[in-house]
Amino acid sequence: MEKILVTTDQSTNSKAAIRFAVKLAKQRKAELIILHVYHLLKPFNWSDSEFKEYGDAFREKIATELTSFIAEIYHDIHEPEIQHQLVLVSNIDVVDGIMQYAAKHDCSYICIATRGAGVLTKIFGTHTAKLITHSHIPVICIPSGYHLKELKNILYASDMTDYERELVKIVAFARPINASVEMMHISYPFEFSFDKELMEATLKKKADYEVTILNKKRDITNTLLEDIEDAIKASKSSLLVLFTHQSRSVFEKLFYPSNAEDYSFYGKIPLLTFNKNEN
């Protein structure tokens, strides 16, 4: 059974990710794990037994608060509670705690809420940015203001260098939820123009799934991410997919992890990122 991991710090910001993860787990008939990473500093004058007693009391308090926090979210989305596992993990680094737990327990996806980051936050990094950059497990970033809706149309921004292998991962995500897949290529004027109908027929055969092609011309007055935003609005996409390894194609800057991070800071729909290095 698939495992979907969603992180929470009990903030209002994290509610969007939990709402999304609940619905996704229900659709995919997956196990839902709700993870809270914490760190306690031991006062130098405390004995081991005193610190253990404090830690046990702290975890019991957090577990009670999280149970209430999650119940409130279920109430807000008018959904009966699905079976889920509430996990507390101690780690000095939140992102390391998330990645280590996800890897150890073979989680399929990591869900995390994100919101617009200020200049200082972007300089020093965010948990979302670090996950996108370092996680070997696909990360789904949910904007904190995102309103829960059906995932009907997945937009896959491709650099056309490894799309057959990448489509396998996207179709694996799309098939259980019956979402359509649209592969977008942003082309420069000097690039070779391919036959749309022939390409779609070839992709359907190789991916065993309906995949439509969106060949968008590059607008040099826009950034590449702005071109993607225009495509999202035009196609009414409900989720964007990016592969974050640095590609060698003319679109390599689009696929730097930093650009996926930038999208997560201001995007209006969920962002699913895969590490291009992963088979």
Automatic annotation (TrEMBL):
Source superkingdom: Bacteria
InterPro entries, per the entry: Universal_stress_UspA (IPR006015), UspA (IPR006016)
Domain UspA residues, every copy: 2-143
Gene3D superfamilies: 3.40.50.12370
UniProt cross-references to PANTHER family, sorted A to Z: STRESS RESPONSE PROTEIN NHAX, UNIVERSAL STRESS PROTEIN UP12
Family statement: Belongs to the universal stress protein A family.
Protein name: UspA domain-containing protein
